[in-house]
Predict the structure.
Amino acid sequence: MIRRSLQHALDELRFGHTGTLNLRTSLPTAAEAVRRTENWLRMKQAEGAREVLVVTGRGNQSYARTPVVREAVRRLLALLSTRGVVADHSEHSPGSFAVRLAPMNAPPARRATNVGDAVQQPLAPPTLDGLSDETREQLRILAMGTLQGLGVRDPSPQFVRDEMVRLCAQLATSIPATATTADEREQSLQWLIARAIERLDDESR
């Protein structure tokens, strides 16, 4: 018990009083844990946090003692490292991860591909200035919804614009390589933004 209390004190010194997400206490499903962890990490990133702790537990209370939550969160952290949210992560203990967050303006990491890989790299994202008013407005709506979902209230215009740029860069990675003209790329981007807004609406219900 003394050792556990000492470890808790050391963790609070390292990660701060509000720098720990403890999933173990609520016993969420893997899907719930992934949703909560992603939302929380994005919120902490928006707050400017640099390092946080995610406690998943070892899976001792899971069916067949399989650490499904722990493995789901591990996969999420690997995914978020390609999306400009997580800079890196490591196992802090058998039931927790230390996560270093990327700055908000950090570009998403690109996954390495083999020379013979047939997967094409996505086209560079269009700049906001090159987009139509309709697309920029869609991006603004998505950015406001995303920030509100992270608990950011009354963001400054520059904060909203930065989030629009981040979302534009993130969504542009899904633009098909077959969209070769500017009009085709923007149409694809509009479709992706609309789908993202629909997902936000579904999650808020």
